[in-house]
Specification:
This protein has 405 residues and is of the alpha/beta class. It has two domains: 191 residues, Rossmann fold (3-Layer(aba) Sandwich); 122 residues, Rossmann fold (3-Layer(aba) Sandwich). The protein has 15 helices and 14 strands. β12, α15 and β13 form a beta-alpha-beta unit. α1 crosses α3 and α8 packs across α11. The longest helix has 31 residues. Bound molecules: ligand SAJ.
């Protein structure tokens, strides 16, 4: 039996996937409300294919509880917040989960940490926690790091198909956990050591952050001299060894906008390109706000409350607002003029911020400038409704005459 600890964006799909592929699974989360929702047969976030997977796991007998179980394998997928000032990972939830596992687990149990952690976290924080209880790692307890790689918006597909990395102290334990993931994973699973697994996860997200920052910097250069950044990137990407990502209003989510800071925090004098890239991405919401002011001026407008932001989530077709560029832009604007921009997102049903709309038509009625911050399918299907508005399209999805980054 596997006890999956933490039933959020990663833990829940992983638990469901294991259960629906014949593994006995108990999911544990300290949040009773979340556990009760799951027991009632409802999922806690939206994701393609998640409801079907949930039903199949329920049919297979998955159960949910707030209690840690006595078993031989634990998968920990609790959040790893980071400290915005020190830029370092805060492993408190991982450490708390490991401690709770140690209270109930039998001798020889395997603790798999799936949560993203900065390189060295297991050596610095997890091992000492186990050792100070007089337990011997490799005998009484085995440690594994199996970082997740699935992309929000396509999690279920990627859980099945992505290659994976398993970092373990001992080869046989690594192989044992590889077989567990092989129950559902059709990708290649590489077994390596823990430090390498920690580093590869953070490097993958850092690579993407730096590439996006490069695209964002190109957007600024092109804006300066009125060149078409999208056409330039399109043509450059026809070169066999060039693959530039897309500029945008900023980088959000709890991964790409966070993980690279771990390297800057731990290696401040070495991680220079990464540091500058993160600053470039973090500066994009302000860049968009300045574009809004320029466009207002060009069109003789003075009332910022006639400007509407389309999209509150950090990217298209997800309901996750963590570190979203729209929230960053709103925060920045509120500092200058109080919060007066209007906002609408079809995927955020509850009232989260001032001047938030829940209906596209009402939103469009009340604004003259629409800033497309997120390219949800909804807006792609309703482009005709934007006619007559002044559009600032930060995602390059609007086909007609409009302003760009
Ligand atoms: N973005 C751009 N331009 C692009 C691509 C993305 O501005 O060309 C922006 C998005 O709008 C968003 C942010 O970057 O605000 C991040 O989005 P994303 O789709 O690039 O990535 P995440 O954060 O949703 O998921 C990433 C993935 N990592 C990589 O692709 C290397 C995923 O595979 C990881 O599992 C996930 O982080 C994670 O949990 O670490």
């Amino acid at each position: 039996m596997v006890n999956v600890i933490g039933l959020g964006y990663i833990g829940l799909p992983t638990a469901l996937m294991l259960a629906s592929h014949g593994v006995e699974v108990i999911g544990t989360d300290y949040n009773l409300g979340l556990v009760e929702t799951l027991r009632d047969g409802r999922t806690t976030f939206k994701e393609n294919g998640l409801d079907e997977l949930f039903r199949s796991a329920m049919d297979a007998g998955i159960t949910f509880t707030t209690e840690y179980q006595k078993t031989d394998t634990y998968i920990i997928s609790v959040p790893t917040p980071y400290d915005k000032f020190s830029k370092k990972v805060d492993a408190c939830y991982v450490i708390a989960a490991v401690n709770d596992v140690l209270k109930v687990c039998p001798e020889g149990a395997v603790i798999v940490i799936e949560s993203t952690i900065s390189p060295g976290t297991i050596d610095r924080y997890v091992r000492p926690e186990i050792e100070k209880k007089g337990l011997k790692i490799g005998e009484d307890i085995h440690l594994v790091h199996a970082p997740e790689r699935i992309i929000p918006g396509n999690m279920v597909y990627e859980l099945l198909h992505n290659n994976r990395t398993i970092g373990a102290d001992e080869r046989e334990i690594g192989e044992q956990i590889r077989s567990l993931y092989q129950s559902f994973c059709r990708g290649e699973i590489v077994v390596t050591d823990i430090r390498t697994a920690e580093m590869t996860k953070v490097v993958e997200n850092t690579y993407r952050a730096v590439n996006i920052a490069f695209a964002n910097e190109l957007a600024k250069i092109c804006r300066h001299d009125n060149m078409d950044v999208y056409e330039i990137i399109r043509i450059c990407n026809m070169h066999p060894r060039v693959n530039i990502l897309q500029p945008g209003p900023g980088v959000g989510g709890h991964c790409i906008s966070v993980d690279p800071w771990f390297l800057v925090g731990d290696y401040p004098s070495l991680a220079k390109v990464i540091d500058e890239s993160m600053k470039t991405n973090d500066g994009m919401p302000d860049f968009v706000l300045n574009r809004v002011y320029e466009i207002m001026k060009e069109n003789g407008m003075t009332d910022i409350s006639r400007v509407g932001l389309y999209g509150l989530t950090y990217k298209e077709n997800v309901d996750d607002m963590r570190e979203s560029p729209t929230l960053q832009l709103l925060e920045s604007q509120a500092k200058h003029l109080g919060s007066s921009l209007k906002v609408y997102d079809p995927l955020i049903e509850e009232d989260r911020i001032p001047n938030q709309y829940h209906n596209l038509d009402c939103f469009l009625e009340d604004v003259d400038i629409v800033v497309i911050m997120v390219g949800h399918d909804e807006i792609r299907k309703n482009m005709d409704k934007l006619r007559g508005k002044i559009i600032l399209d930060t995602r390059h999805i609007y086909n007609e005459e409009c302003y760009h980054l």
